[in-house]
Amino acid sequence: MTDLSSPSAPDTIKIEASDSTGTIQRRARGFLALFFVAIGLYTLKGFLPALLWGCVFAISIWPLYRRAELRFGRSDWLPMIFTLAVALIFLVPVSLVGMKVADEARSALEWIDDVRNNGIPMPEWVPRLPFMATQATNWWQNHMTSPQRLSHLLHSVDVGHGMQMTKQVGTQLARRGTLFAFSLLTLFFLLKDGDSVIRKCLLGSQRLFGEQGESLAKQMISSVHGTLAGLVLVGLGEGAIMGIIYMSTGAPQPLLFAMVTAVAAMIPFLAWPTVGLVALLLLAKSSMIGAIVVAAIGSVVIFIADHFIRPALIGGSTKMPFLWVLLGILGGAETWGLLGLFLGPAIMSALHLLWTIWTETNPRKGIYAKDTEF
Questions:
Q1: Cα–Cα–Cα angle for 21, 23, 28, nearest 5°?
Q2: Nearest partner of 257 among 274, 244, 269, judged by Cα
Q3: Which domain of life is it from (predicted)?
């Protein structure tokens, strides 16, 4: 028991009070930091997808940017050139698809106008239908070839609802365009100040989590690189191969369906419906051989890509089993949309690394992430 009458008693009390005050201040600073982080994320919640897309773009092209920087030197023009290149990669296909959709919409309006004036002529196959050719012919002549009946049917469509849907589509396009612009802006500044951002992120992770924090960061970045190669590049390769097959077999709109196949193939097993649709369209055109060729080659290409190439590229870069990779891709896409294709595997790679660290006898043996540049 401390003797309060001794000369050293006041100093002891001051030290204990000082330690208690320091602990309270550290906790208060921690709560204050969490509060501002939470309120900051809430303030930016509308722009978080744009910021995350900018980070994904920066991580994906960072190795290529570093090579260009070492070759041509550091300048403010280099980040701008890479940002413009990324913008063109997305804008050129979207513009082509938009022009094609506009042409198809104009053709559809012309067809509707022709139908209102002349009706729909009877196809040659209607009188040849088995068992019900007479009934089908009479129905078509009474309902489809009469401009008055078709005009009444077309006027019965809710035009106001169509206008409202068009307005909603325009609003969504404007919002998506704004978010894409902010993603490009984020990409530019991340490339411009990349070295400083990487250094500060590594320092912060080491202070908070130690060496394991740096390993987690590198593991997640390796996952983004693997996802880029395993999903995006493989999907583009599948779209290019199938586009050649579509053109060689005489499929309708081969360029448009090639782009749709490439985008769908970025998600495992999702390219099957697109290839099947093209095969059905060829079958409808009485091109049996073309439909068989598209279905057969498409099945082989998708099977090889989904079962051999994609797991090797994604799982090989992160040392994850393919089941983890598949769950990350599908779960991320369901939860986060297209952004989840990158976030899902990154989150699962971090969980897999934590599991490996926790199940090692010596936790330090679980740190196996490669010391590669971001």
A1: 95
A2: 274
A3: Bacteria
260: left (phi over 0), alpha (psi -120 to 50) or beta: alpha
pTM for this prediction: 0.66
Which tens digits make up the pLDDT trace of 274-330? 899 898 888 877 778 888 999 999 999 998 888 788 777 776 666 777 778 778 888
| Contact (CB, 8 A) for 331 and 344 | yes
8 Å CB contact between 292 and 319: no
Q: Over 60: is that where the pLDDT of 10 sits? A: no
Q: 127 near 85, Cβ under 8 Å?
A: no
**DSSP structure class, residue 371:** -
How far are the Cα atoms of 97, 271, 275, 305 from residue 280, in angstroms, in the given order? 22, 14, 9, 23
232 DSSP assignment: I
Non-local (6+) Cβ contacts of 262 within 8 A are: 235, 236, 238, 239, 240, 243
Q: Is 64's pLDDT higher than 80?
A: yes
The DSSP code sequence of 100-158 is: HHHHHHHHHHHHHHHHHHH--PPPTTSTT-TTTHHHHHHHHHHHTS-HHHHHHHHHTS-
Residue type at position 262: A
Length of the chain measured in residues: 374
Give the separation between CA 350 and CA 219, rounded to whole angstroms: 6
Closest among 197, 201, 193, 195 to 218, alpha carbons compared: 201
Rounded to a whole number, what is the distance in angstroms from the first to the last CA of the chain? 58
For residues 261 and 192, give the distance between their C-alpha atoms in angstroms, rounded to a whole number: 35
Question: Which amino acid is residue 306, in one-letter code?
Answer: D
Q: Per-residue pLDDT tens for 170-207?
A: 777 788 888 889 999 999 999 988 888 888 887 877 77
CA proximity to 252, closest of 280, 276, 278: 278
Task: State the angle between helix axes of 234-249 and 288-304 in degrees (0 to 180), rounded to the nearest 10.
Answer: 170
> Which residues have CB under 8 Å from 347's CB, separation 6+?
220, 328, 332
Helices 234-249 & 254-265 angle (0-180, nearest 10): 150
- 10 Å CB burial of residue 256 (0-12, 13-18, 19+) is middle
Instruction: Tell me if 269 sits within 8 A of 288, measured CB to CB.
Output: no
